[in-house]
Amino acid sequence: MAWFLLFLAGLFECGWAVGLKYTDGFTRPLPTALTVISMVVSVVLLGLAVKHLPIGTAYAIWTGIGTVGTVLLGVWLLGDSASVSRLACITLIVAGIAGLKLTA
Q1: Most CB atoms within 10 A, among 8, 27, 51, 86?
Q2: Which residue range is the domain that position 88 belongs to?
Q3: Tens digits of residue pLDDT in 51-84
Q4: Rounded CA gap, 93 and 52, in Å?
Q5: What is the model's pTM?
Q6: Any idea of the CA torsion for 90, 91, 97, 103, to the nearest 10 degrees?
Q7: Minimal CA–CA distance to 16: which of 80, 55, 60, 65?
Q8: Domain tally, the chain
């Protein structure tokens, strides 16, 4: 269950990271509210997950999911670059996350 909570926390991290773009500097109320809610949910779920997982592993995986998800959503939703080098770096992050999961 802790791994599932950690995965959800990572997804909510993607939500608030991308949500920042839509807040327009926190001037748009609905995107701002959704972004703040995503922040809180993400941190609460991370807190629940680390009750049962090593903090270093959980934090690295949480930020990894957030990083990879945010990059992919940036490409898909915001037209960010999808260059070969960026995708190769994402692959390295995913390999690191898998390694941490396998050794935890």
Answers
A1: 8
A2: 2-103
A3: 999 998 899 999 999 999 999 999 999 999 999 9
A4: 23
A5: 0.85
A6: -160
A7: 65
A8: 1
